[in-house]
Amino acid sequence: MTVLDLAFREFVDALETASDEFGLKGAADRLAARLGYRWFAYLGFSEPSLKVLSSYPGSWARQYIEQRFEDIDPVVRLARSSLRLFQWDRRTLRLPSPSQQRFFAEAAKFGIHSGATVPIRGGFGRFAAFTLAGNRDASLEARSTEMMDTLQLAALYYHAHVYAKLQLGLTRLADAPLTQRERECLSWAARGKKMPETAKVLGITTRTVVFHLENARSKLGASTVAQAVAEAAHRGLILS
């Protein structure tokens, strides 16, 4: 098992057991450290509220919220127009306005000068961004593609757990319908397929299968995937 695989597995396990903001923050903070970053930040935009979970220095986090820096944050602006993860620093970010330049200079005082951000889009204008920031371990440079793929999936897991456990957004995750892909993964599980086998059949990665099954489990209020399969079959959502 690689370092990335172990970090991701421990992150998912931590999210499973997290029941409040403290647990959710701890899971993301440990993931950041395992991947060679100093801090994490999650911003969930669901009008009219903004949900912020982060390990940034307290004075910077308070300043960010009180002064509504999300309105000028160049990373947030780029995330709103992006579909996939991107890495950033002062050199790659466009800072056209004096206010953005001052913002980034202020962030740099706390050591926040580079990072990687995953944009996450939801229905009805909902949007979130998951960021790991600070210095990254040079040993991970050669495996940056694999690490970025891990971070992309980790961000989606985190977003799902935050919305489900903190009951954010327009509806709770438990009230949302199953997606087509979630039904497909449950259907193959019902037929006795293991996750790697399901991944091969559907042409996706095993981690993605895990992600869909975990979402389905949460939506169905089940404790295990096996219980989720049984519940889905009972409701007529899949063929048993």
What characteristics describe this protein?
five-stranded antiparallel sheet, alpha+beta, 2 domains, Arc Repressor Mutant, subunit A, 240 residues, Beta-Lactamase
Describe this structure in words.
With 240 residues, this protein is an alpha+beta fold. The chain folds into two domains: 3-166, Transcription factor LuxR-like, autoinducer-binding domain (Beta-Lactamase); 177-234, Winged helix-like DNA-binding domain superfamily/Winged helix DNA-binding domain (Arc Repressor Mutant, subunit A, Orthogonal Bundle), CATH 1.10.10. The chain has ten helices and five strands; from the N terminus they run ααββααβαββααααα. It has helices at 3-17, 21-34, 58-66, 74-80, 98-109, 144-166, 180-190, 195-202, 206-219, 225-234, and strands at residues 39-46, 49-54, 86-89, 114-121, 127-133. A hairpin with a 2-residue loop joins β1 and β2. α8 packs across α9 (206-219). It starts with a helix and ends in a 6-residue tail after the last helix.
